[in-house]
């Protein structure tokens, strides 16, 4: 038996509206997380009030591993969200991989309110923030390729 065209249209419209509502109102977090974060390094600020966490983020087989950096309060834990100050990938292998698959990134506290982040110039940068709260973030490339 064939489906009434009006009923079919209403069914498709209802499914579309439900999908849009799920995106808008955040219902997808109820599903298992598709991405995961794995810490690579943590550096405390000189006064131990803040910390920088370098981590790899993997969002499945169809995406490249990324190396990400978040600035957190000393008592905060890394949660399953993207980095808040730096995100880069290897640009499909153009930049060398670090220990967990994304490009190698190093961080160094200069003062309590200043951080330097180094990465390979061939990495594809997705996010690069210069200030986060009271902290200034400077960026540089490794002197030699990948080292």
What tags apply to this protein structure?
147 residues, mainly beta, 5-stranded antiparallel beta sheet, elongated
Give the H and E element order: HEEEEEEEEE
**Overall form:** elongated
Give the amount of beta strand, in percent.
35-45%
Give the fraction of residues assigned to helices.
10-25%
Which spans of ≥5 residues are poorly predicted at pLDDT below 50?
A: 21-28
Radius of gyration: 21 Å
| Number of helices in the DSSP assignment | 1
Q: How many angstroms separate the termini?
A: 68 Å
What is the average of the pLDDT values? 85
Number of domains: 2
Main sheet specs:
5 strands, antiparallel
The spatial strand order of the largest sheet comes to 1-2-3-4-7
Number of strands: 9
- Helix/strand/pairing class, anyone? mainly beta
Structural notes for this entry:
By secondary structure, the protein is mainly beta. It has two domains: 1-31; 32-141, no CATH class. It has one helix at residues 5-24, and strands at 36-44, 50-58, 66-73, 86-89, 105-111, 114-119, 124-128, 131-132, 135-141. The strands form two sheets. Strands 1-2-3-4-7 form a five-stranded antiparallel sheet, with no helix packed on it. The radius of gyration is 21 Å and the shape is elongated. The termini are far apart.
Draw up the topology in text.
Blueprint lengths: L4 H20 L11 E9 L5 E9 L7 E8 L12 E4 L15 E7 L2 E6 L4 E5 L2 E2 L2 E7 L6
Parallel strand pairs: 6-9
Antiparallel strand pairs: 1-2, 2-3, 3-4, 4-7, 5-6, 8-9
